[in-house]
Amino acid sequence: MKVGFIGLGTMGASMASNLQAAGHALCVHDVRREAAAPHVAAGALWRDNPRQVAEAVEVMFTSLPGPREVEAVALGADGLIHGLRAGSAWFDLSTNAPSLVRRLHAVFMEKGVAVLDAPVSGGPRGARTRKLALWVGGDREVYDRHKPVLDAIGDRPYYVGPIGAGSVAKLVHNCSGYAIQTALAEVFTLGVKAGVDPLVLWKAVRQGAGGRQRTFDRLVDQFLPGSFDPPSFTLTLAHKDVSLATALGRELGVPMRLANLVLEEMTEALNRGWGHRDSRVAMLLQEERAGVRIAVPPEKIREALEQDA
User: Fold this and answer.
1) Residues 242-265: pLDDT tens digits?
2) Cβ neighbourhood burial of 278 (10 Å; 0-12, 13-18, 19+)
3) Annotated catalytic, 170?
4) What is the average pLDDT across 229-250?
């Protein structure tokens, strides 16, 4: 296909190169013309602004720093809105605000152009090796039609739902990662200050239940089905464990902000009379605060796991 690509930074440069390697005719633009040199040397066409790129292609990709840059490329004086033709499609690979991609979707739909949000995950190495997840929101038929092009960018394209759904998935993924990162920094400083060598500690905890399990696989038991009985590990026992850890932190003078917040959550859950239930039952408190109820039928979860395998 004739493919346009705007944003040849750390991630975008590799994704654009993979599109070329798959045989697509590439037309490119970046705020730094020198960033496009490898792609032009490999046969890509350079254009001086987003509009000129859009006029030359059937499908458009952007990989930009954030919402402000995406909006400028889309709606600026020489933006995509002035160049993309009816029947074409634009996939935004940026980590973006769902509200913006929904607004752009509505604006471009008036011109007959399909907008899909398709943020990626895998980092620079994944972009180079095509080991990327793409979470796509938008029209399912447009996604299916362009699936071969998406396959050239990453090995795990996944249709999430209507416009904006891909961006929501990306924000959930990234925010959880940084929250876990902060928690790991907290507990590792506790372990090291308590006298355990950091490498030895890391090797040890990787063998535990949490270390052997993928992060989001933990949601399959209890939380996703919304069933906390019978318990796998009771809230009372979990509360005891976190109490001991925070007590050790006080003894050693290690700040334990997140762990103390966890302890508060567990204490509130205990005061609800949930001590005999699974420790994950404390997660119901956040469901109450958010005003949502999560209860996925177990057979649907099994089906999803089988498909993933």
Assistant:
1) 999 999 999 999 999 999 999 999
2) buried
3) yes
4) 97
